[in-house]
Amino acid sequence: MEHEKIERINALAKKQRESGLTDEEKQEQAALRKEYLDDFRAGMENMLKGVKIKRPDGTLEELKKKDAT
To answer: Contact at 8 Å (CB) between 35 and 8?
Structure first.
């Protein structure tokens, strides 16, 4: 995510604390937060793809994604 968008998220959060947001600003804030979280989750998932678990017998096993049940 671009630095300008993160700054905008922070500016909207500050304005929300100080004086409140308009409906348009609330929608913008929600969209920016969703984009930020999607980027964060994608980066974290990509990082975890490279993680291996070393078993007691010395074998390496890749992490497996849990079922969301």
So the answer is: no
Q: Set out the domains of the chain in order of their start, with CATH numbers.
A: 3-62 (1.10.287.540)
pLDDT, tens digit, for every residue of 25-59? 999 999 999 999 999 999 999 999 999 999 999 99
CB 26 within 8 A of CB 36: no
Q: Where are the beta strands (DSSP E) in the chain?
A: 52-54, 60-62
Q: 54 by DSSP, 3-state: which?
A: strand
Question: Measuring CA to CA, how many Å separate 52 from each of 5, 18, 56?
Answer: 34, 46, 13
pTM of structure = 0.73
